[in-house]
Design a protein that fits this description.
The chain has about 200 residues and is an all-alpha fold. Helix content is about 80%, strand content about 0%. The chain has a domain at about 60-195: Tetracycline Repressor, domain 2. It is built from nine helices and no strands. It is elongated and about 55 Å long. The model has no long low-confidence stretch (mean pLDDT about 85).
Length: about 200
């Protein structure tokens, strides 16, 4: 007789994986630590995920797909590079206030070289499509330096806001660092790096 999957246990596993990756990084996360934090056995976890990479893949497909789609929509609908950065950063800061573990996971995965190897394949098409749109905006508006590259845009977007989040979210009363004033400050910082 087939075992029935408990959706709550799976959600607990995903949340535990998020917390462990945030605390120890992708390399430091283990199936045993995730299972222990989720209150399930490692065997139970292996019934649903063949490896840590498989679990990360599930997190990316379920939890991170929405934020990727949101960023892509900003790239499609923005009429300026400044507006694109502003919308993206505002969304990240709102997430930081609503679900600090989730936004820390996103930041950790973006900045973690070990996770990047796994994310690379999944994100390559997304990054290419989004950067293509942002680069089109840059060429159309002339806001950025004429020698700006897609790599410059990606480095700016994937470094400054995410590093800021990881630095500030650990402070007591961290919500004060994610207000509109800071959205503007970090947006200007990103925008100025491309001028």
């Amino acid at each position: 007789m087939a075992r029935i999957t408990d959706p709550q246990k799976i959600e607990n596993v995903k949340r535990a994986a998020m917390e462990i990756i945030v605390e120890y990084g992708y390399r430091g996360a283990s199936i045993a630590a995730i299972a222990k934090k989720a209150g399930v056995s490692a065997g139970y976890l292996y019934l649903h995920y063949s490896s840590k990479e498989d679990l990360l893949d599930d997190l990316i497909n379920t939890n991170l797909a929405e934020i990727r789609n949101t960023f892509y929509q900003f790239a499609v609908t923005s009429t300026s590079i400044y507006g694109f950065f502003q919308n993206t950063i505002r969304t990240l800061f709102e997430l930081a206030k609503e679900d600090p573990i989730y936004v820390q996971l996103v930041a950790t995965l973006v900045l973690d070289v070990d996770a990047e190897k796994i994310l690379h394949e999944k994100n390559e098409e997304f990054k290419y499509r989004m950067l293509e749109k942002v680069f089109e905006i840059s060429n159309y508006t002339g806001e950025c330096h004429e020698y700006i590259s897609e790599e410059n845009i990606m480095l700016t977007l994937m470094t400054i806001p995410f590093r800021y989040i990881l630095l500030k979210i650990k402070e007591e009363g961290y919500e004060r660092f994610f207000q509109e004033e800071q959205v503007e400050k970090i947006t200007r910082m990103c925008f100025n790096s491309l001028r």
